[in-house]
Design goal:
mainly beta, Jelly Rolls, Barwin-like endoglucanases, SH3 type barrels, globular, disordered N terminus
Length: 402
């Protein structure tokens, strides 16, 4: 397949982050060995959000308030996604040295992810070190800037990366699924955290952590969302951050979960705050939590994919935590059917760019689609079927006949 080309809570945290980002020559990196390179901060293109390069540093393009996106917490935020680097040898650890000027109320963070046979890892903070559970062959970096002071921005002058090997951390259990409360996003015309402009009946989801945020026009991180009865399912890329929190990857083990490590795995902080008064009933920004939401659904996912009429509990699978072949939906939203033909009942929708888990394939009705004319139908992990005529690429292993 074609690979993608590429908050401040307290004063004490601001001081710690500022010290971590002071410019240093960092000769220890060379002494330890490993592959080293510098991120190109001057190339700001379509998959970058609200950042600009002045010729000397990367900074927020517009550090002013964005009231419609206040649920993200920070007054303003921006993100540069660099092109992936193919490593000369596989690595399990990536470290970043960030040369930045960080004023009070602003943050600048270097994050990385790695490519394995079955897809990208989640994004990890690399200012200290990001350690992956298995060796990766490509590394992609991004720089995330935020400010809680309108008109003030951090300035990043350079990001130097080193990839080497280290003891691996435990991997998440494949195929994680949790029941969480879903709310509808709306906000047509606004811009998501990855730079996508929301359109009517849009198809994507938001999760309360940037670790699973896909670059625009990719489904690198795709969620399967099903009604609790299992009658309808939707596959949609993660293109926004929220609801409530921005550092609550609740699907991860406590050892790697960003915040709220004392909560049970699979329990969103907002749910614990709303139901049990956890953290005084407030989110990470101190706001009173008014519902237990752990996922936001764009209108098309909410109304058309799941046919919901009000906010509801749903079963969510975080598909990048699984293994096996994945098919990329090249044209959508694509009907998911109960069998291998257009005469079978529609059981949901797969959004364009969604990466869907393929168990095996069967032969059925011949369909002429944008990529081929074929009688092959892929059986998804949930037992539904999609025509292979609409799948632009398959990665993560060979697909066998059922």
């Amino acid at each position: 397949m074609n690979l993608p080309h590429r908050r401040v809570r307290t004063v004490a945290l601001t001081v710690i982050l500022t010290l971590a980002l002071l410019p240093v020559p960092n000769p220890a990196f060379a002494a330890r060995g490993g592959e080293q390179w510098t991120t190109d901060l001057s190339r700001v293109d379509a998959d970058d959000v609200n950042v600009r390069h002045t010729g000397a540093s990367l900074r927020l393009a517009d550090p002013r308030p964005a009231p419609a996106r206040a649920h993200r917490g920070a007054v303003a935020e921006g993100m540069l996604v660099a092109a992936p680097r193919v490593l000369t040898r596989p690595a399990t650890r990536v470290r970043a040295a960030v040369d930045a000027r960080v004023a009070a109320g602003t943050t600048a963070e270097a994050q990385v992810r790695g490519w394995r046979a079955n897809g990208w890892t989640e994004w990890r903070e690399a200012t200290g070190a990001a350690v992956f559970d298995r060796p990766v062959t490509r590394v992609q970096a991004r720089v995330v800037l935020t400010t809680s002071r309108p008109g003030v921005t951090a300035e990043v002058r350079a990001v130097r990366l080193t990839a080497d090997t280290a003891a691996a951390v435990a991997a998440a259990t494949p195929g994680l699924t949790y029941r969480v409360y879903a709310t509808r996003i709306g906000l047509v015309g606004e811009v998501t955290a990855n730079g996508h402009t929301i359109v009517p009946r849009d198809h994507f989801v938001a999760l309360p952590s940037r670790r699973g945020l896909a670059p625009a026009n990719t489904g690198d991180y795709t969620a399967q969302v099903c009604t609790t009865t299992g009658s309808r399912c939707a596959y949609a890329p993660v293109w926004d951050v929220g609801p409530w929190n921005t550092r609550d990857d609740y699907w991860n083990l406590s050892a790697v979960r960003e915040n709220w490590k004392d909560l049970p795995r699979g329990r969103p902080q907002a749910q614990a705050a709303y139901q049990d008064g956890y953290h005084g009933g407030r989110d990470q920004f101190g706001r009173v939590v008014l519902n237990p939401a752990g996922i936001d659904l764009a209108d098309g996912t909410f109304w058309d994919g799941l046919q919901l009429t009000t906010n509801a509990w749903v079963d969510v699978a975080y598909l990048w935590s699984g293994t096996g072949p994945r098919g990329v939906v090249g044209d959508g939203p694509l009907n998911i059917r109960a069998g291998a033909g257009t005469g079978y009942a529609v059981r949901g929708l797969a959004a364009r760019y969604a990466n869907v888990p393929i168990e095996c394939y069967v032969t059925g009705e011949t369909v002429a689609g944008p990529y081929r004319t074929t009688n092959r139908w892929n059986r998804l992990a949930g037992g539904q079927y999609v025509s292979h005529a609409y799948i632009s690429a398959v990665y993560g292993g060979a697909v066998t006949i059922c």
